[in-house]
Each structure stands twice: as structure tokens, then as C-alpha cells.
Amino acid sequence: MIENIEKDIIAIISEVSGYEPEEITPETDFFKDLEVDSIKAIEITVAIEKKFKISVRDEDVPKIATVKQAVDLISNLLENKKI
Amino acid sequence: MSGLVCGCYLAKAGLKVLMAEQHHKPGGYCTSFRRGRFTFDAAAHSFGGYAHGNLGKIFKDLGIDNKINIKQHDPSNVITSPDHTVSFWADIDKTIDVFQSVFPKDADNIKRFFNFLTEPDSMSFARIRSWTFKDLLDKYFTNDRIQAMLSFPLYGNGALPPSRMSAFIGARIFKEFLLDGGYHPAGGMQVLSDALAAIFKEAGGDLRLSTAVKKITTKNSEVSGVVLEKGGFVPSLYVISNSDARRTFLTLLGKNNVEQDLKDRMARMVPSLSTFIVYLGVDQAATTLPVSGVNYWYLSQYDLSTAYLSAKKGDFRDMGRYLVHVSPDRSTVIAFMNAPYGSKRYWETNRIVLSDRLIKAVEANTIPGLSKYIVYKETATPRTLQRYTLNHAGSAYGWESTPFQLADPDFRKPSFIRGLYLTGHWTTHGLGIPGVAYVGYDTARMVLRKKTHNCQKMLN
User: Is the ipTM of this complex over 0.85?
Assistant: First the structure.
């Protein structure tokens, strides 16, 4: 499941940033390596919310800085949704 | 503006770029027109974000500074109500002093509010993405008057009251337009658009004016080119639309090529209000004109939510909410107020009456004796704006910049059609000249990354 989330996240980051999926690793820093700015950070969050049907808190938006962080956050939110 | 910036970057990077503009001059809302000895800026009449924002970097990259003379007018904006007058200066400390002297009880709150807006942490605005600008103001102020004085220019620059305006977009407009505003190119706004067009052509770009795009063609869910109304089919790997979003998707791409979900969302989304504009050529003997190049805002009462609803309904019983601007050469005066699209009949009936009433309001509150100096008068209704720019319903700022309509990925690069990008104020990513110029720059970066990758793939 986590692998699928990671694949979906990479696809979203690729669409929003313009970088190719193969250029994005779990540790790639969106802000430093992919030139993601504040409006793109929001765009990534909107895309994640739409894809996974979850709601991300505003204060967590800047914390989604790598694929790994995004996967962790989404996994937690999906887990909480089940409960 | 966004398309021009994007086209310049792409052409300068060596791509073969065609720019098709339906109007006979480039620039969209950033154009000017001549009537006898008068040159009027058609809609945009000053810009911000040049010294401290992204616009400075963009203009430097493209070499605009070598082609035109840009002057900052200081103060950039003056806001007057029946009780108070405040000014925005290039020196932010001076602006803070002004606000603190007018609202001494809120001195500390004013300082904290401006500190937030100028925080170096670029992610600070992202943390308020679901807030309205009113939520942000409420964090610092309980005084309705100071809230209205701080947000009235956003009501003019985004056509939304603080209770509907996204805090993210509002904070950006505030930072760019008010804290680093008042810039104007010598000769008028057309000079800026013409300079960008010249840079585009010098870089090898093909600019075709009076050339509307009729269709965006696709093959296997990928763009294949465009069909021009004059000139037939032009094949292309990428298509970047700076046109109205509905037009891009529903008319140019065609309803059958658009995902139902996006069509449903667009049907629910709200476009921003339009503007009613009065252009006045004035006698050189006019002695009561205020300082030129400055945006003078007047608000008669502090409830901007009611003002918004009245403008939306076309209820103009209170004319006391307007912006007036004297051109740097002091030969023209332009007055603006938010307005609904309205029927053809509505504007046939109200155009002259509203123009006269707006002039009277400006005369009563901002420029004494204005009427006797007028030697030329013309108006633009939302229908005029629509005719020249094809913006839906003459919308002045694309989709309303509410928190619910912010940063939607499908309005930048729709996932269901490869090679199609949108740029400009319909992207839900920014408005105003600095906002759309940045989107244009960023769109070019995205295309260039894709292009570089495809070239590398071919070489490998």
C-alpha cells in the first residue's frame, strides 16, 4: 500500500513541479531540489487531498517537503479515517 | 501579460514559439489606447512587486529594464474614508507610522500584522491557505475601521471583500501591490507589453496579432497543435493558454475532451466581478488634481461584504467606493468601480448615468472641480472588457480568489491532456501583474523541464 502511495505522490509532484518522476526520490527535498514555492506547496496539498480523499491541516502544508514525509502523513490520515 | 512573459522565456531558451493574440495589440488588460492627445491605460494602470518581489527578477531576466523607464510613485496608494486617510509608502516603516498615528490604540497590532506580511519564511502564507483575509485580520484587529482600511485595496484589486478573499492571495496582493507598489512605465502600460512583445520577437518568436485561436487539437489525450481563425492548423508539442479557462476547456479543447469532474467544478466555480471604468482627458489648467501616479481609494462606509453584494447585484445607490488614478503626465484621470457583467440593456440604460454619478463622487471626495476640467470622456463596461480580452463576463481577475478556489492543479496543467498548460489569472494561482507574470515564468520553467527531459531521452 505504501508503495502505491509513494508512486501516486511522485506522479503528483512530477505534474506540479514539472520534474520527471525518475528525478524524484523519496528523499528529494521539494523546496530545495524541485523549486517548489508556497503556491505549489498548496497545489501539491490540493492534489493529495483530491487523490486520497483526505483533509490536510493548514499547519501541515509546509511539512510536506519530501515524498517520504508525504507518504507518512497520508498513511496516518488514511489510518485515522478507518478509525 | 502572463502569456507574453511565458513566451519570452521559451523563445529565449531557443524554442520555436508562436504567440497568437486575438486583439490587435499585445497585453490583455495591460494595454493603453489613444484618443487625440490623450493616452489612457485601459485597465492595469500601475504594478507592484518590482523592487522586492518576483517581477524584478523576471524583468531583469528578460532585459525589460534596458528597454523601458519604470518609475515608482510614492506614496503608491492613499485610502480615504469619511473619518481617516492612510497612505502606503515605499518605506514600510513610514507606512506603519502612518497607520499607528491614525489608529494609536492598535499600534502594536499594526506592527505585528506588518511583521507577518514581511516574514522572510516563504512558507508562512501557505500555513493560512484555508483562511480568508478576514480571518487573518481578526487575528490582529477587532476594530472594523482599520480592517476595512487595510482591505479596501484588496477589494479593488481582487474584487472581493476580506470575508471571501483567500488570506494567501490577499497577503500576496498586500505585499506586492501595497508594500512595494506604485510602479508605472513611462509612456503608459502598453509600453511594458510592447517591450515584452519586442523581446519575444528578437528572440525569434512569431507574434501574430488579430489572430484568435479557434481550436486546440489533440491526439491520444495529447495536444497536437492549434487551429487559428486565420492561418489554419499549426502543429505543436505544447499549447499554453492564457485565455479564459472556460473558453480554453469548453470551446477550444471541446467539451468532449474535458473530464466530467472538471466540467462539474467549473459550473460551480465563481468568476470575479468585472469593473466599470471612466476615462477622462483633462485640461492642462486643472489645478486640483492630486499627486499623479498615486492610486486614490475612497470608501464611504466600512462594510465591504455589503459593498461586494451591492456591486454583484448592480446596486449602485452608494457610489462611494472607487479608485481614481491621475496619469503621471497629468493629462488623464481614470476612475474604477467593481461591477457585474449585466445585460446589454442594463449598460445601455446605466452607462451614462453611472459615469456621471462616479464623476460626481470623485469630485465630491477626491478631486474638487473635476467636471469643469474634463475635455474628453469615455467609459468601459464589463462588456467592453469582455470584447477586448474574451475574459468570461468581463471578469477582472479570473476566478474569484477564495480559499475554495485556490491552487487547483487542473487549472495549471490538466492531468487528462498531456502538453496543455494554462497561464494567467484563470489558473487559481495568482492575479495582478506580479501574480500572473510569475505564473507565466513558472509555466515556462515547467515546459522547459519537460522539453529538456524529452531531448535527453531522444539523445539516449
Answer: yes
